[in-house]
Design a protein that fits this description.
Number of helices: 7
Helix content: 10-25%
Number of domains: 2
Distance between the termini: 32 Å
Number of strands: 17
Largest sheet: 8 strands, antiparallel
Radius of gyration: 20 Å
Strand content: 15-25%
């Protein structure tokens, strides 16, 4: 198979260990009724009882993933099950990458893309040839509640998605901007995001912000069909350069970390073929179990604490209107002057 090509499979699968990544040092379910929390040693299993969520048997359901908050593996599974209707549009027909943290906050994490087809989690696969290794990668394709909960059962906390669908890998559904503050302060990301919004508004593009669930801000622009990943990168890079030109003390597009200083890195490469970004409504392995939360632009301020949207508090947030409710109805073409 040629590099970058793919084929689908409907067989199910399991998990060899994936690529190790740097884990963050700072890195009860509300929807299905109260969850009994019992304190234990960090990462320890305190119960062998069987718990089923979305028909999936959760092993070690009382394993504590956030010792300071008493949040367990089963709590994360129930959280995702409870917000499934909001999460589904972001996972359906998309190749998924799991950020697996089997011991929660105090253990290490790794990303896993390749899920062999004969083991858990259940669900279809998309096989893509990795250009870096020449090997096939069997991606889990989202769309099933049981598939997602099966990934949680394997220790997955955050779900990362591509901007392309498995059925249309040559097109993207959105432009993505990852505003990554080198200071680690969300306030800087918020300032950069508001400046980016102005640039996008001037170009006639509707944009939607969300917390990354960590220190950054993500900005999505829904797109009509026909935009390739390569073109999306070119356009996002163009916007990033314009933003850095206008706000040189705030924003940078430097790939070299040593050259970024204390500025916010406007990362356009989340749009590249095969690259991923954390899904809206994904839980992050950070203190308090924050959730990557869709925002209205008037909520993006330097005073916002993104950790205030977390697994324990999200029921109140979810009761409000979704600020991204019209996202898929606002698909748009790229500005003509950027399409040449």
């Amino acid at each position: 198979m040629r590099p970058g090509s793919g084929r689908s499979s409907s067989r199910s699968s399991h998990t060899p260990s994936g690529r190790r990544t740097a884990s963050s040092a700072n890195p009860r379910s509300w929807a299905s009724g109260p969850t009994r929390i019992r304190r234990s040693a960090p990462g320890a299993s305190v119960s062998s009882s069987t718990v089923k969520v979305a028909g999936v048997a959760i092993s070690n359901p009382d394993k504590v993933w956030w010792p300071d908050d008493g949040i367990t593996k089963a709590d994360v599974a129930r959280f995702y099950d409870g917000i499934w209707s909001r999460l589904l549009p972001w996972l359906r027909d998309r190749p998924l990458t799991a950020e697996r943290c089997p011991d929660g906050m105090l253990g290490s994490c790794f990303y896993q893309k390749d899920f062999p087809e004969d083991r858990a989690p259940a669900g279809p696969r998309l096989v893509l040839r990795a250009t870096s290794t020449g090997k096939d990668v069997r991606y889990v394709v989202g769309g099933s509640r049981a598939t997602l909960i099966g990934m949680v059962n394997l220790g997955c906390i955050a779900i990362h998605v591509m901007s392309s669908r498995a059925s249309r890998m040559d097109e993207v559904d959105w432009l993505a901007f990852d505003m990554d503050p080198q200071t680690g302060e969300f306030a800087d990301a918020a300032k950069a995001g508001l400046a980016l919004r102005k640039v996008l508004d001037e170009a006639g593009l509707v944009s939607y912000p969300k917390t990354s669930g960590s220190r950054g801000l993500h900005v999505f622009c829904p797109l009509r069909a026909g935009v390739s990943p390569q073109r999306a990168v070119e356009v996002a890079v163009s916007f990033g350069k314009e933003l850095a030109r206008r706000e040189p003390d705030l924003v940078t597009v430097e790939f070299s970390k040593s050259k970024r200083g204390a500025r916010v890195f406007a990362d356009a490469m989340r749009n590249a073929y095969g690259q991923t970004i954390v899904a809206p409504y994904s839980v992050r392995r950070r203190p308090k179990a924050p959730v990557s939360t869709p925002l209205a632009w008037d909520e993006v301020t330097s005073r916002l604490d993104p950790a205030s949207f977390n697994l324990r508090t999200f029921e109140r947030r979810n009761a409000r209107a979704d600020p991204w409710d019209d996202f898929w109805r606002r698909r748009q073409s790229l500005p003509r002057h950027l399409e040449a």
